[in-house]
Design goal:
Elements lengths: L2 E5 L6 H15 L4 E5 L13 E4 L3 E3 L7 E3 L7 H18 L3 E5 L9 H13 L5 E7 L7 H14 L2 E5 L21 E3 L20 E4 L7 H10 L11 E5 L5 H10 L4 E5 L4 H7 L2 E5 L2 H10 L3 E4 L8 H11 L4 E2 L7 H12 L12 H18 L3
Parallel strand pairs: 1-2, 1-6, 2-3, 6-7, 7-8, 8-9, 10-11, 10-13, 11-12, 13-14, 14-15
Antiparallel strand pairs: 4-5
Helix pairs in contact: 1-11, 2-3, 5-10
Length: 384
């Protein structure tokens, strides 16, 4: 069951981290696995024994995702797209997978359809066919009816299985996707994917601290700037050590600016592979609202403030954060309402929070592997 996973991260690192976790779990089961990334894979990402291949890297110019930049920060060209599609085609041909997984696509990343769909259709039409799988989060960003229709058509035409990394008792796929019923015959819920990292933190780090994180990517400028002023305004956390973890996409200029402005009692450093261990020791965490981070927070039980990004068209983070806040698991402070004063107040509210047992299915990694193996065997036994 040779398995290839395609993933594209454009601003944050959440998509890559989740795909890498799946690749690692598959490789741990002895499955020959190749992770193909459309961007750089920093050492922070743990893909275990899985192989890694990279495509010409790109990123979004900003949170609107309307402009895609190449490795030289220039808008991508038609020639760039052609070269990248050809490279992906070569990688897939050389690896010759039995299973091809696309992370998010076709339920997002539609800009990359011209590199993915020809490869998928080529593999499906070949004498030795490939099972095609979509790997998708619990919530989709709200799209137009035209885009929803395109997603359904692409899924029904070109995919054999859709893995929804969520728990329908918590959030159902149709809460954010109006045409979910039209593809559910292809879908299975896996439960939420939680970081499987067991990297230990040095003695003392994180103990009783406030951990402030924006993930591993380029987001978080507004949160970091608000945090610098929030500590002194908090009634319950002003005497604690606040440790701010900046993603590797945060520029050195901004990183240096935050370090220069940070008051005594604040530690400023880059994102760390022992993030889960720090959360497990912390008194409070303050984080952006990405899928991976919220699930890390929920699994550790640390009282938390979640700051979902509020960019135009970005509905996914706030929807999830509000649903979890309604269950008493986190405090939600949308980015558009973020100030040092509001963050300090939210921190005080979270410090008084005792998160109840969450009852959420967080076995997404193991269940994803189990589903993939079982479905591939059934698919292969029936003559593909």
């Amino acid at each position: 069951m040779k398995t290839l996973i395609w993933v594209q991260h454009l601003l944050g690192m959440g998509h890559l981290m989740r795909a890498a976790a799946l690749a690692r779990a598959l490789a741990d089961k002895g499955i020959d696995t190749l992770l193909v990334s459309g961007g750089a894979v920093p050492s922070l990402v743990d893909s275990g024994a899985a192989k890694i291949a990279t495509l010409p890297p790109c990123r979004a110019a900003d949170v609107t995702f309307k402009v895609i930049l190449d490795e030289n920060d220039a808008p991508v060209t038609d020639a760039w797209w052609t070269e990248r599609a050809a490279r992906l085609n070569r990688i897939v041909d050389d690896f010759d997978p039995d299973v091809l997984i696309t992370e998010t696509f076709p339920f997002g990343r539609r800009r990359f359809r011209d590199e993915l769909l020809p490869v998928i259709e080529k593999r499906r039409a070949a004498r030795r066919q490939t099972m095609t799988v979509a790997s998708v989060r619990d919530i989709l960003v709200t799209a137009t009816p035209e885009k929803d229709d395109w997603m359904v058509e692409a899924a029904r035409r070109s995919y054999d299985l859709i893995l929804i990394h969520g728990d329908p008792k918590t959030i159902s796929f149709d809460d954010s996707f109006r045409r979910a019923a039209d593809i559910m015959h292809l879908a299975e819920y896996t439960g939420y994917i939680v970081s499987a990292s067991n990297v230990a933190a040095p003695p003392g780090d994180g103990v009783g601290e406030v951990i402030v994180s924006c993930g591993s990517g380029a987001l978080g400028t507004s949160l970091f700037r608000a945090t610098v002023g929030a500590r002194a305004l908090s009634n319950s956390a002003a005497d604690l050590t606040w440790r701010m973890l900046a993603g590797y996409g945060i520029s050195e200029t901004l990183f240096g600016e935050i370090k220069d402005r940070a008051p005594a009692g604040m530690i400023i450093e880059r994102a760390r592979p022992d993030f889960m261990a720090l959360l497990g020791r912390a008194r409070l965490s303050i984080n952006l609202g990405g899928y991976n981070t919220i699930m890390d927070v929920i699994s550790t039980g640390v009282p938390s403030v979640i700051v979902p990004i509020s960019a135009e068209g970005e509905t996914e983070q706030e929807q999830r954060a509000r649903l979890f806040a309604e269950r008493g698991l986190v405090v939600c402070l949308p980015e558009r309402d973020l100030t040092p004063q509001s963050l300090a107040a939210a921190a005080d509210q979270a410090m008084a929070l005792t998160p109840p047992p969450h009852g959420i299915d967080t076995a997404g990694i193991n269940r994803s592997v189990e589903i993939l193996v079982a479905r591939y065997r059934a698919w292969a036994d029936h003559g593909r």
